[in-house]
Design a protein that fits this description.
- The chain is an alpha+beta fold.
- It folds into three domains: 1-117, Helix Hairpins; 118-154 and 220-266, Urease metallochaperone UreE, N-terminal domain (HSP40/DNAj peptide-binding domain, Sandwich), CATH 2.60.260; 271-376, Urease metallochaperone UreE, N-terminal domain (HSP40/DNAj peptide-binding domain).
- 24% of the residues lie in helices and 27% in strands.
- The protein contains nine helices and 15 strands.
- The chain has helices at residues 6-10, 18-32, 42-56, 59-68, 97-106, 135-140, 285-290, 349-361, 365-376, and strands spanning 127-133, 142-153, 168-170, 179-186, 189-196, 205-207, 219-230, 238-242, 258-264, 271-273, 276-284, 292-298, 301-307, 316-319, 335-342.
- A four-stranded mixed beta sheet has the order 10-11-15-14. It has a three-stranded mixed beta sheet with strand order 1-9-8.
- A hairpin with a 2-residue loop joins β10 (271-273) and β11 (276-284).
- α2 (18-32) runs antiparallel to α3.
- The radius of gyration is 35 Å and the shape is elongated.
- The termini are far apart.
- It binds zinc ion (2 copies).
- The site of one zinc ion has 8 residues, from loops.
Length: 377
């Protein structure tokens, strides 16, 4: 099998720094990610890039490669197959290139083989962030900038937890296995139990001098600024997953995810019903009788509503398309407006006279209804 030139694959010099390798990897991985590249053989190329980065991104493996020119298979990697040897690559939208590459560095890039998997590492916690938005923002969609305190891979030790690379040694208690086997002789026979090594907590290694920055944890607390895109038409209580923005895993374990829980503040006048907006407005008796055109609020600003003459109390008008903007590809909801006809509680003398005059010249349905009712008994 012909040997692969990993430097050539990444397009870097033999003496390239880690940062140069990292940026070359990111550039190429973005270009050839199977989700975005239409080029023939992109998937093959993407595999090669990952293989090259997995070797050159790790100091020990790079040194070995420089000396002996071994191929990835000899490192215990297997990049054949769809899932790149057990590690499921996220689709492009969720693909965190920094995170992936950092896992190459730390050797925590698990799943290639048992030899390579790093025991004692743990996946970072998922984080929850509660966000309040207005109903208007929920309708149009909005980009929110947030700052979250979170754990990140320690920049000083690159997540190893050790002051120096030589400070990581095999645990003498369990000889690197991370497990302790105890055999007890009892009257019922010989019992053998396997427990996690208490000296190294199952990691198989001990750190002689812990990294002072992170006290051996491999992670530090940082504040991270993020922009969160809230899609239009979002429902109250929706949880948005932001992949890879949770806490860093200890000892280069996988990074957790961030869940942004979106709550919509109650609105002063609007009530949301699905994608429709419900609103009550007061109108006068005269407006109900004679009709009017009124300006009322909608989610997108003011709009005119025509009240026809003879509008009955509690009538609901539908204003089409004036509701919440629907999720992508869907239209907007409607605004439903219920009118509350206000009956004057007091009349002055002139008003009273006019209403009495109005009563005299009006056919009185109520009166005839009550007289019929009275006659029935
Ligand atoms: Zn550290
Ligand atoms: Zn141990």
């Amino acid at each position: 099998m012909a040997e692969k030139d990993y430097y050539k694959i990444l397009g870097v010099e033999k003496n390239a720094t880690k940062d140069e390798i990292k940026s070359a990897y990111k550039r190429l991985a973005k270009k050839y990610h199977p989700d975005v590249s239409k080029e023939a053989g992109a998937a093959e190329k993407f595999k090669e890039i990952n293989e090259a980065a997995a070797v050159l991104g790790d100091d020990k493996k790079r040194e070995q490669y420089d000396h002996y020119g071994t191929s990835a298979q000899q490192f215990g990697y297997d990049f054949s197959g769809q899932n790149f040897g057990g590690f499921g690559f996220e689709d492009f939208a969720n693909f965190d290139f920094d995170d992936i590459f950092d896992r190459f560095f730390g050797g925590g890039f698990s799943g290639f083989s048992s030899r390579q998997s790093r025991r004692g590492s743990s996946r970072g916690s998922d984080l929850r962030y509660d966000m309040q938005i207005t109903l208007e923002e929920a309708s149009t969609g909005v980009t929110k900038h947030i700052v979250i305190p979170k754990k990140d891979t320690c920049p000083k030790c690159n997540g190893t937890g050790a002051e120096d690379e030589d400070d990581v040694a095999e645990c003498s208690e369990c000889r690197g296995s991370g497990q302790m086997r105890q055999t007890r002789r009892t009257p019922f026979g010989i019992f053998s139990t396997v427990t996690t090594c208490s000296n190294c907590n199952g990691s198989g290694e001990v750190i002689k001098h812990k990294c002072k920055e992170c006290n051996g944890k491999g992670v530090v607390s940082v504040e991270r600024k993020l922009s969160i895109d809230i899609p239009r038409g979002i429902e109250d209580g929706t949880s948005l997953r932001v992949a890879g923005q949770g806490e860093a895993g200890e000892k280069n374990g996988r990074t957790g995810d961030l869940y942004v829980v979106v709550r919509i503040k109650p609105h002063e006048y609007f009530e949301r019903r699905g994608d429709d907006i419900y609103l009550e407005i007061p109108i006068s008796l005269v407006q109900a009788m004679l009709g009017d055109e009124v300006e009322i609020p909608t989610i997108d600003g003011k709009a005119k509503l025509k009240i026809p003459a003879g509008t009955q109390p509690e009538t609901t008008f539908r204003m089409r398309g004036k509701g919440i903007h629907g999720m992508r590809g869907f239209g907007s909801g409607d605004q439903l407006v219920k009118v509350k006809v206000q009956i004057p509680e007091r009349l002055n003398k002139e008003q009273k006279e006019l209403i009495e005059k109005f009563a005299k010249i009006s056919p009185d349905k109520e009166k005839s209804f009550f007289s019929k009712l009275r006659d029935a008994f």
